[in-house]
Design brief:
elongated; 0% strand; mainly alpha
Length: 223
């Protein structure tokens, strides 16, 4: 099971880590802009972004595939990482904007009096006070990325950069073929593979469940 799954697990950890980190940066910066800055058309742009939440992801599968094909990103890590950054940021903007908007204005006024810049307000006030909600958002996105199957199967055919969900299906087919269709004898290696694939998420949640629940509670109260 380990020989068949280790590459897929490592690929998924890399893709998830880089993608979620980029998503947190993009969504937190965007949420700060919508929560703490004033400019014409702010609310209209914000609601236009929220409308993207109403579109099922499967409807954009073919246009997304054509776009990445024209950009030359198919069969690359970019095809797996960029959708995490761009797609996850929509919900992230919605969640973080509400959280940033509920922070006391006195904190920002005091920082401005001390000469803090706009970027300093984001980095020194919003981010330190938002660790629980950022952790919650990161865990939710990591779980969604770890379980994603359709897009990696569509965009990547190179098994060297494929992710764990597609790897499990490939391993199931391979074991069944090797045993001439006798699936019963493949249950042991298959269950071992499923266990290995679930271990990283289980370990992550075991160590971060406190912050996950704390972020859910704080964001629920502020909403």
């Amino acid at each position: 099971a380990w020989d068949g799954m280790w590459r897929y697990i490592v690929n998924t950890i890399f893709v998830s880590t880089v993608g979620v980190a980029g998503m947190l940066i993009l969504s937190s910066l965007s949420a700060f802009v919508f929560a703490r800055m004033r400019f014409p058309g702010k609310e209209q742009i914000y609601f236009a972004i929220l409308m993207l939440l109403m579109i099922p992801g499967v409807l954009s599968l073919v246009p997304q595939y054509i776009l990445y094909q024209q950009l030359g990103l198919l069969n690359t890590y970019g095809a797996l990482i960029l959708p995490i950054i761009t797609g996850g940021s929509v919900f992230g903007v919605f969640l973080l904007r509400t959280f940033f908007g509920s922070l006391p204005e006195e904190l920002f006024e005091a920082a401005r009096i001390d000469g803090c810049s706009l970027l300093g307000l984001y980095w020194r006030i919003c981010i330190p006070l938002s660790y629980p909600i950022l952790g919650t958002l990161a865990i939710m996105q990591l779980i969604g990325t770890w379980n994603d199957y359709i897009w990696p199967l569509t965009a990547v055919s190179d098994q060297n950069i494929q992710v764990v969900t597609v790897g499990l299906v490939k391993l199931t087919t391979q074991l069944s073929n090797d045993l001439t269709g006798d699936t019963a004898h493949a249950y042991g290696p298959l269950f071992a593979s499923y266990t290995l694939a679930a271990l990283p998420i289980l370990i992550l949640f075991a160590f971060t469940s406190k912050y996950y629940i704390q972020g859910l509670v704080s964001s629920g109260l502020k909403l």
